[in-house]
Amino acid sequence: MPERERPRLLERRVPKGAKPEIQIFPERLLSAKTVERLLNAIVERVDGIGRIVLHGPGLPKVVPFGPARGEPVKHPERRPIRIQDEEVPMKVQTGQIIIEVEDEERLDEITAQIEEICREILPCDFQVQTGRFTRHRPTVTDYLKFGEKGVKELDDRLLGLVEPRARLSDRVSILKARRNEEEEDEK
What we know:
This protein is an alpha+beta fold and 187 residues long. The chain has helices at residues 32-45, 107-121, 140-153, 168-171, 181-186; strands at 21-26, 49-55, 80-83, 86-89, 96-101, 126-131.
């Protein structure tokens, strides 16, 4: 059976001074196991990635309202996944993945690599779009959360990722950048 050409969504414009992003939009929510395999493949095989944002419906620890309020939620997808050598708790059921590209000149090459990985791993159809999908400048919410001084000191990769009343550690997992083999050889 010949492989079907995947339609591309409309390309989004990248604002001046912002890094481009690649959005992977599967046609269904992904399991934690699939997300783990996909992210590990992307991190291992694709160079030039700045940050990865997983987006989807939340998987709360406890029932937030109703007669069972406060009872623990035993959702099978709320489990830690391992990305390289670090454990990351799954707090959302992934329905969208946004990958920031550090090297804009390699955008087409990186997009093709990511599409190939998605074809290998994803059990469903998907769409890939390039553009800018997250904030690249401080928002009012960032100023509410961190204050003016805090925003100036904040890592740009954290801009626009959390709401004012949420703890950053509850919403964001930061993984250490992998070292190049050249850096290891120098030590």
